[in-house]
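ok trying this again, last paste got cut off
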Amino acid sequence: MTAGLMHQSMPPNDLGMAVPAAMPARSRRGVNFFVERSLPLFNPRDKSEAAGPGGMFCVEADEEPTERIALGETFYVPVHDQLIAQDNTPVYLRAQSSKVLRYLTKRLGRVVTREELVNHVWPNLAVTDDSLTQCISDLRRALGDKGRKVLKTIPKRGFVLHGEVIAPPVTAAPVFAPSEMPQEPVDAFALHMDGPIIAHVLEGRGRRQMRFGDIAEAVLAGKPLAQGQGAAVVLTMGQLADPDLLAAAQPGRILADVSVRELAHQHPGLFFEDLGHVGGQGNPRAYRLSEFGVEGGLVPVSLDQPMLPSVAILPLQNIQSDAPDVLGTVFADLISGTLSAAEEINVISRLSTAAFAKGAQNLTDIQKYLNAEFVLSGFFIRRGERLQLNLEFADVTSQRLLWSYRVEIAMADLLGDFEAAHEIVAKIRRAIMINEIRRASIRPLESLQTYTLMLAAVGLMHRLSPQEFSKARGLLDHLKDRVPHHPVPLAWTARWHLLRVVQGWSDDPDGDAQAALGCTGRALDLDPENVLALACEGHVLTNLLHRFDDAEDRYDLALQTNPSDANARALRGMLLAFQDRGDEGVPDTERALRLAPLDPHRFLYLAMAAGTLLTRGDFDRAEQHAMASLRLNRTHLSSLRMLAVTQVESGKHDAARETVADIMRLHPDFRVNSWLKSSPSADFNVGRRFAQALRDAGVPD
């Protein structure tokens, strides 16, 4: 255990939940547990309970003062739910006792009934009076209130807490100054989308504009205009809207341009269906706002696999700022990486949980959008070079808080050897009752600025805009120069080359594949177990060199290291399908879909799932998955090809010919023989079946 790490031993309480043991006030440095609510996740944007008048925050002894409440000889700091002795050492409380104190401090001098306290601390649970009596006793011991003058009992009515609010000096300087870390010159578009959201409302022959600072606000205002009043609404980034986009607008519908669509990933409740290029190739791409679940309720089938619990690790929120803070994502990455080593757990991909980076989500949303059974969430507070992490682990299905945990670490630990990650994972393991878990070695990037650049590059890489995709390459090249001996930028550069080919943006697919192979080779020299590099190398060995045994070895090794890597799992499933082993491949592609419910490239996972289902002869589900993929990316050639073959083999020849017409319009040079020359399945029955089906649907030889 590092010197800066603090933890509490946690015996079970009367409800079976872990709580901190009672201990003397001076025995260890630490803070109270922060458990506040068991149903919704913590919302750091709601400062009503987290900050006193003026929005100031709690500080250590050598920092600026904040609002406190004097309770006899102790002080309570509302901002941190923290009880402090006169010598500035923290006073520890059980989780439920802390909740009782917090509730009472909001009602100083007022009678609070026993029933009111029970309903607040144990909502929807049947508990005896003994539970509350124990909490009251704990509080009196912590307050040193032997005479019961601070916390009084009012017979047959309830309790009254007496205290004095001590406001901070009006002239106090801000407690937390902005970070003074040197900033790298980064393209602003790489980190966030600048500019307001403009809603262009077309009603009859009239047109007006509405300005919004957030896409969710724009959609909330636009839906009643479209669905209730029948107006056509077009959402753009900035005030100028392309005439072709406006011309494509229809009454009762909401359209968006590509810039607005990219922001939708930050809001899991928004789903934008790809309509392709309005008015033909070269024109702007349009997206129609749809309800979540437009894929038709596709649920991956686990077949012979045991049902494994799924865990979502959400980025932590910075309670001191409304602006995004990369440290929350760094934490989520480290915990996800460590937990992913467990064979018995499905860990939802980071690119999917990133949709909840803004917080303010509840457990119902987590279950609906991520299909996770468990979720780890929380917030953090910066104090100079140290961080206070406040965590909640909840059962999504029952909407029950399983445990809460507060720990303080040095920021350098988070960016280096984060030992606390293993302690948190152990708590998760115990909570979901698994018997064994391996500890993974996490190699984080060496500085916060480098990590920020990495996140920016990955974010740009997963956009459907060729221009933004190209910007990602520039950032990756900068990262390789900055950390030449780190495998992560090399692995993501390999992924960039492969995505360039998959998206149809490469003018030299063989050259990109060879470049990817060069990057994976160097990355694996540095880290032989780098999961992304192994998956990318397997991809090249499959699609370029057709070395199937070597490719399968790469995927197997990647999944031994991280069984929850959706990319490697889907690619292995497709490799098996190429070799007429669709029955073996379907479990992998279905599990990959479960692991990446909100991935920006989910259309790829849907296409690979369609391929394995088609190989196995499950035509109805293969067609559903292919069409779902096309709703996310209308121009994806592999999905179109898969759909055409499925339609032919299921006897829907007219529909297949319409699909082929779309293929030939988008790719006029597409030919069956040229596809066969490069297809990994060419020498297998599945390849010959696909080729004949494409011919039958009208693709020229």
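PB: full thing came through this time. The radius of gyration is 28 Å.
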